[in-house]
Write a structure and sequence with these properties.
CATH architecture of chain A: 3-Layer(aba) Sandwich
Helix content of chain C: 25-40%
Radius of gyration of chain A: 16 Å
Number of strands of chain A: 9
Order of helices and strands of chain C: HHHHHEHHHEEEHHHH
Number of domains of chain C: 3
Oligomer: heterotrimer
CATH topology of chain A: Rossmann fold
Structural class of chain A: alpha/beta
Strand order of the largest sheet of chain A: 1-8-7-4-3-2
Strand content of chain A: 15-25%
Chains: A alpha/beta (201), B alpha/beta (304), C alpha+beta (371)
Shape of chain C: globular
Mean pLDDT of chain C: 90
CATH superfamily of chain A: Bacterial phosphonate metabolism protein PhnH
Radius of gyration of chain C: 27 Å
Shape of chain A: globular
Low-confidence stretches of chain A: none
Strand order of the largest sheet of chain C: 1-2-3-4
Number of helices of chain A: 4
Helix content of chain A: 10-25%
Structural class of chain C: alpha+beta
Number of domains of chain A: 1
Distance between the termini of chain C: 53 Å
Largest sheet of chain A: 6 strands, mixed
Amino acid sequence: MTLAIDARDLAPGFADPVFDSQSAFRAIMNAIAYPGRIERFRRPVAAPAGLSPAAATIALTLCDFETPLWLDESAATEAAVAYLRFHSGAPIVDHAGRARFCIIGGAASALPLHAFHAGEDKYPDRSATLIIEAQSLTSGAPRRWRGPGIKGERVVGVGGMKDSFWDEWTLNQTLYPLGVDVFFACGEEIVGLPRGVATEA
Amino acid sequence: MSGARESGYNFAYLDEQTKRMIRRTLLKALAAPGYQAPFGGREMPLAYGWGTGGIQVTASVIGPEDVLKVIDQGADDTTNAVSIRRFFQLVADVETTEATEKATVIQTRHRIPEAPLEEGQIIVYQVPQPEPLRHLEPREVETRKMHAYAEYGLMQVRLYEDIARYGHIATTYDYPVMVNGRYLMAPSPIPKFDNPKMQDNPAIQLFGAGREKRIYAIPPYTSVRSLDFEDHPFRTQSWDQRCALCDADDSYLDEVITDDRGGRMFVCSDTDYCARRRANGHVGAQGAIDPVGEKTDALSGDAQ
Amino acid sequence: MYVAVKGGERAILNSHKLVAEERRGDPALAELDVRQIVEQFRLAVDRVMTEGSVYDPELAALALKQAQGDAVEAIFLLRAYRTTLPRFAVSRPIETRRMAVRRRVSAAYKDVPGGQVLGPTYDYTHRLLDFALAAEGGVGAPEADLAEETLPDAMPPVLDILDGENLIEREFADREGESVFDLTRESLSFPAGRDQRLQNLARGDEGFVLGLAYSTTRGYGGSHPFVGEVRLGETAVEITPEELGFSIEIGDITVTECQMINQFKGTAEKPAQFTRGYGLSFGHGERKAMSMALVDRAMRCRELGEDALYPAQDEEFVLSHSDNIEAVGFVTHFKLPHYVDFQAELELVRRLRAEHATRVGRDGELREAAE
């Protein structure tokens, strides 16, 4: 597929690719290691239309030509696709099931979680990582999270998810050690939800 | 241009694409605690078996604001620890420390520090053999299946044979653990004395095996259970002696041969822990005559 | 008084100085020039390039100089350097049929189109030490005779002759565009494809691969090989830059290629056919290329429906242990301090012995009481 990209129209990527991505990665790693805890990017990228700075920062920190990337309809704006292609080099794929990373802009109408790759028995690391744009990381209906990385339990209120999401998550959790891993993005902040975490209303 | 260091190499030696690949692997490893994720391990300027896995992991997480501690056998001043610390000073120019609580990243070979780790710290283990089942089944094709279906009977049988023969489980280091109730994991060759420290640890624990090209991890506050049997519960090593320098009775001890007539003494393997206790006034049987801070470079003497 | 042994930074730096001193040897003698190594230690340079996976004679020669001639240490240096190099492109498959041949022999036919070309080889040298090489002034500038006629530009591979009659299995179709497994970017995975196996063998330790190849011919693998062809010469490397859309030559490299013919296979449905093994090394490396071709064939047992009974047929065994940099690192790491683990073992053995003594003592008392 050829798509002429005019670099002048693009939002910039990391100002300092080496140190900014290192700093971003530490926030991302903390988010997956301490699920439910809000991590704020200190030097996020300026996001293109359609993406939050947090989602764009995760994508630029982790994606490259080795990671097929899928965007749902609301994330796949022309600006976002051009931006991700130019700055990450990740191949944009049409099938959600074939992507290593998926950006979901429309959390309220997202594909069911089983549409994404859950990994393989011998290689559960091959599962997809979802970056979901959330309306809020605090003001959604509170749920109690338990699992690795959480001391006891943590109450988290991710806002803007469709009603069936948490039931789908419970199913995803039963696949453990297979299953997708999720980052909720909002503004310049993220919350991690790895496959091992169980949630309850 | 950021990253261009005086050494002529990128910050922390690895190129950015390699770091990204390792970072992705680390996240998946944290999401499936104890699972050995394959990664495209690179050839490092240090020999395989000498910490290349740990170095690649450290290089992928470390930043200019970190404070690095490197230990080998619990000590900051063993030759390989010095060599690895020098490597990061050269290629990443990070601050280093010997104080466990000041470090944000601790790379270790064979020990977990005695001082409890805290949130915000990352401990990176150098792993020579990531596969806990390797000595029972040499084939990766087979062991990968065993992990996929959680078939760990072979290990239970092995441990039980020990009990039948010796009355004890005869594994004293690299003692297998079950992580988050799912994956059997090699804790790297730490003595089993350190195993309980992995359980519910507030720090992030990362494991890098360079030659075998595997990364695995234990997130904070995760169940890490040493295998045992109801009638033979897991227990750690203990000594009748105390540390001869700082009088500690709760730390892992190294045995030092002092003469050729059977003379020996026991000292803390964790040099930072020992020095700190001495600085706080604890004195062991032979501690008083070794003034703290006066060190002799015995090896460098030899090398001259 | 107890003084802890400190392996300080000074010791390490001094150790490096000692190495430098030993490397230089007697300073009264002229220092080796890297170009001398390129020219006069070419076979060592070729091995370092092959197992180091970098085609650069000057770098390989530098590595050999730095490693005091230790091939494995030099390979290590080159590999560690290679890791830091950016990757611009993946070449197109090299066309050895268009090689500028300097040597080419076939053991399968008395004569072949293009002829047998003996070229430079130690094969028929009598292994007598040549003291003229040690004499002051050396041997000057020896010169070989020129052939009466030049060799043809293209020499068809000998195996094409068999192929024309369907006597040998077909070579793989040219799967251009398909990505080739790269061990320097991904970890080994099993079952391994032939691309992974060949790359591993190409980088593998010559001694290890040679030993395995030898074993296949001594009953541990049932190999009955014929050298279809060994050829040495220069061949062009081409890449196809994305922005150009057509391929361009980026240089010539010297390679040694071996096509091995192996025992035939046939079934009730399929008539008998010879099978192949393939070997390639940078520079002049016949021993390596031939060994590689034999072990390649041995490891093809699965796809050819043979039982894997012997070490050379066991791809996980071969691929996991052929890399000398991995092997050396692990074997030598045992000289690193292990006293924490040794202490753990000491504690257990002492405990077991104490318990044994108590038990024996108690049994003794019981016996005495019974008597």
